[in-house]
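Re: the request from the purification team.
They wanted to know what the chain is likely to look like in 3D before they choose a buffer screen. I agreed to run a prediction and write the result into the notebook, where they can find it.
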Amino acid sequence: MSTQIEGGIRLVSGPPEEVRRLAQYVVEVEPGGFSQNDIAKKIYKMLVDDVGDRALVKSIASADRIAMMLPPGESRVRNE
């Protein structure tokens, strides 16, 4: 999952290799111990910290939008 900042701003999800090719900010998730809601909030905070502009991130990748793109069940951020 990622927000793409250059060449357009959007939230995308897909195979990690393809997302890395398209995006400036990438967060990988894998099966784990957090509910969709909790992991979406965590990813949102990570993006705000990386991008540095809460309003921009919220307009593109709110926690609600992130949650809709996550796989069903529990997840965690990969390599964290």
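For the purification team: The mean pLDDT is 87.
Please add any questions underneath this entry.
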